[in-house]
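Re: the request from the purification team.
They wanted to know what the chain is likely to look like in 3D before they choose a buffer screen. I agreed to run a prediction and write the result into the notebook, where they can find it.
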Amino acid sequence: MTFVVTENCIKCKFTDCVDVCPVDCFHEGPNFLVIDPDECIDCTLCEPECPANAIFAEDEVPEGQEIFIELNAKLSKEWSTITEVTKPLPEADEWNGKAGKLDLLEK
């Protein structure tokens, strides 16, 4: 099993999760992070660190957000690994918790 970054990360991109990942499985895109399912060891450390509550175990991804399982797998192959904490996006607090952000995903 793997963990999955879901919609609430879009336009937020908090990186607290990156700091605790023992296998560097996070990848960074323009306005979103993803987890490489082939690298994730299911350690559960990232989930409680996410201030946006955007990380879920694959079998607990909220209804309607299952597309993020596929997006994490696909985009983790295209985006660079991120291993250090960076500042969130400037309007992260404003976007945190807003629904319907999938269309805003920059690939």
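For the purification team: Helices lie at 16-20, 67-78, 92-95.
Please add any questions underneath this entry.
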